[in-house]
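To: structure desk
From: M.T.
Subject: fold request, one chain
Message: Could you run this one when you get a chance? Sequence is below, nothing fancy, just the single chain.
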Amino acid sequence: MTEPKRLRRGKRFQRLVQSDFELNSKDGLVRREAAVDLVLKRPARKSKGRADILITELGDFVTILEIKATNWDKIKPTNIKKNLWRHQAQLYSYADRYLDIDNTSVCAGIIYPTRPRDDDLCKLIESYLESYGTPAYWYDEIATEKPGNAPDWLKELLET
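Reply: Done. Structure tokens follow.
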């Protein structure tokens, strides 16, 4: 059975970002798809998770990054906050393990491909996530290697 186009696109974006971090991070140990034991604060279906990027050996903190190939320009307005809540909740289900069990500080963030076209939507996304202590990063602005014109290559990656 063929994977849905949206899932294939998301996996391609995730591999791109993970490779960039592995090749270009100067500090710490970068691991992709790092297994994380979850701290269960309520009944859950699973007790293990997989952080998209986990950077350890940074001293007294770890960095956890989730990669989401969300095209905010295509999300219905009624679903924006619901998606944002799910994204930050997933991220913090991983962070809780380090905060609660290891007593380690966590630097966490979510990486999206590009800013939405609408400035008000961008502000909503950033302020919503910041209210949970989570920054949004726009990959086309932080990518270390940009083959050609970043918006074009990223747009092509996400639309195919």
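Reply (cont.): The domain at 5-159 is CATH 3.40.1350.10 (Trna Endonuclease; Chain: A, domain 1). Let me know if you need anything else for the meeting.
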